[in-house]
Specification:
This protein is mostly helical and 519 residues long. The protein has helices at 37-52, 71-84, 107-119, 130-139, 157-165, 212-222, 238-251, 283-289, 293-301, 316-322, 337-350, 353-366, 380-393, 403-411, 421-424, 431-443, 452-466, 471-483, 491-498, 500-518, and strands at residues 7-9, 24-27, 56-59, 90-91, 123-126, 171-174, 181-185, 189-193, 201-204, 227-231, 259-263, 266-267, 333-334. Among the domains are: 279-349, Glutamyl-trna Synthetase, Domain 2 (Glutamyl-tRNA Synthetase, domain 2); 352-404, Orthogonal Bundle (Helicase, Ruva Protein, domain 3); 423-518, Arc Repressor Mutant, subunit A (Orthogonal Bundle), CATH 1.10.10.350. The protein is elongated.
């Protein structure tokens, strides 16, 4: 989390900082691991602000850390944005006037700017080692970890040459001014960093590698980014960026100072910031479970923002119409998986039936329920069963990953489905009597009359009106016979889809297995 010891904030006022004309925002992740929900929330808010203002959304990749960056992660970020429908106007795979859009391809740009900063006196060569900095702090009565003390600011050319003869290579540091750094945050209000709280910082390592502290502001400047929306964890680096921006403006590299907005943390379990190690943070895990993009984006938008009181369900078009980053709350948002699933369920219910089926098929194929991964490749029988079951299932699932469990028994020709553990609890002492009576009654139903209403009427009359069973005891064993599950699509509609031969076989086989199931 950001070091807030030397930061003063005020409550965001009703007089919100103005947004510039022709808003230009950016999303600039580092390709280090699987995309997580905090990253996506950042992309979403930037995208929504650009679309709301008819601005420009720039997508670039910050990949100068060769030890941590990976091409696999880069491709996963592209996959994530593409799946979610977060499109961009300039940047990776799109192009634009300010490329290249990968930092690993912009090395010469950073070298040139670093030299300009040196030549103008805004930066200087620093030869101090971390050990020497710590020793000087201890000698001065400061904590060893106090940080850099400005020792190299005024080295003479003779001193620099002596260090070079020792084989030392210099880092390049920015000179921080001896004054408070104050700015108005779009989300958090006025923020002040006290003079001396931010030491002169490194922008280029001794080996010549540029650091984030240089590359990020330089890219923003050259890509004319004028609204910087990013996570609260980067707040402590903002005074560095503001000072460097002033220098870049003096050098003609930057045209204007951007406005900043620092979005609240996304919290996980135990009042801790959601980390990459938390399962809830893994975007693709949510996709694997069957979140649809509309549901997941809707929920992520609620982590710090709301469209209106008592309205948690909205489309991305509605979000774009209403979104203003200045309405984002500064308080942390908590990732509540149960609420996320509930919101996803609402969006699943809003899908057109054929859209619901098309999106479900890849999950059904993954789970071995159907023969192909796309609707058009399915067999006629599979399409027929799924079409008939869509309205039965769509209102009962919360995630697309749950569809397999619902329709598997409808698509299967199996004449016996072993009951799941929680379904076995539905098989009370009367289950055998119920199954026996049901088999006798249903055997008399002609196959061409094996229809939902007839089945309902027959079993209701036989088991409830004549035998006196309560509905739960009457229909529970039949449901278990049909699906092997405690929760399934509506029973009589399911039996019609399954057909008489298989339905009867399942009833008889469950009856046969009852002694071993009931133990």
């Amino acid at each position: 989390m950001a070091d807030t010891a030397n930061i003063t904030t005020t409550e965001p006022s009703t007089d919100k900082p103005a947004l510039p004309q022709n808003v230009r925002v950016r999303f600039c992740p580092s390709p280090t691991g699987i995309p997580h929900v905090g990253m996506v929330r950042t992309a979403l808010f930037n995208w929504a602000e650009a679309r709301h203002t008819d601005g420009t959304f720039v997508f670039r990749i910050e990949d100068t850390d060769a030890q941590r960056d990976s091409e696999e992660s880069f491709n996963q970020i592209i996959d994530a944005l593409t799946w979610l429908g977060i499109d961009w106007d300039e940047g990776i795979n799109v192009g634009g006037p300010d490329g290249p859009y990968r930092q690993s391809e912009r090395g010469e740009i950073y070298q040139k700017v670093a030299q300009q900063l040196l030549d103008a006196g805004y930066a200087y060569e620093s030869f101090s080692t971390p050990e020497e900095i710590a020793e000087r702090n201890v000698a001065a009565g400061r904590p060893k970890e106090f940080g850099y003390d400005g020792y190299d600011r005024n080295l003479t050319e003779e001193q620099k040459e002596a260090f070079r003869k020792e084989g030392r290579l210099p880092a390049i540091r920015i000179k921080m001014p001896d004054e408070d750094i104050v700015f108005d945050d779009l989300i958090r209000g006025r923020i002040e960093f006290k003079a001396g709280s931010v030491p002169d910082y490194v922008i280029v390592r001794p080996n010549g590698d540029p650091l984030y502290t240089l590359t990020n502001p330089v890219d923003d400047a050259m890509m004319r980014i004028n609204v910087v929306l990013r996570g609260e964890d980067l707040l402590s680096s903002t005074p560095r960026q503001i000072v460097l921006y002033r220098y870049l403006m003096d050098l003609g590299v930057a045209k204007e100072m951007p406005v900043f907005g620092h979005m609240p943390y996304v919290m996980g379990q135990g009042n801790k910031k959601l980390s990459k190690r938390d399962p809830e943070s893994n975007l693709f895990l949510h996709r694997d479970h069957g979140f649809i993009k509309e549901g997941l984006l809707n929920y992520l938008a609620l982590l710090g923002w709301s469209i209106a009181p008592d309205n948690d369900i909205f489309s991305m078009d509605e979000m774009v119409k209403a979104f203003d980053v200045r309405d984002v709350k500064a308080n942390p948002g908590r990732f509540d998986i149960d609420k996320a699933i509930a919101i996803n369920a609402e969006h699943i219910r809003m899908l057109e039936p054929q859209d619901f089926l098309n999106r479900s098929v890849p999950y059904l194929f993954r789970d071995g329920v159907v023969s192909a991964a796309t609707w058009d490749e399915l067999t006629d029988r599979e399409r027929e069963v799924l079409t008939a079951s869509a309205e039965l299932v769509q209102t009962r699932v919360r995630l697309l990953g749950e569809v397999s469990g619902m329709v598997g028994s409808l698509l299967s020709d199996a004449e016996y489905i072993a009951p799941e553990d929680d379904a076995k609890k539905q098989l009370k002492a009367t289950a055998g009597e119920v199954l026996t009576a049901a088999i006798a009654a249903l055997d008399a139903v002609p196959e061409d009359q094996w229809l939902t209403d007839n089945l309902h009427e027959t079993l209701n009359k036989t088991l409830i009106e004549e035998a006196g069973y309560k509905p739960r005891l009457a229909f529970g064993p039949i449901r278990v016979a049909m699906s092997g599950r405690r929760v399934s699509p509506p029973l009589f509609e399911s039996m019609e889809i399954i057909g008489k031969p298989v339905s009867m076989a399942r009833l008889k086989n469950l009856l046969e297995h009852l002694p071993e199931i009931q133990g």
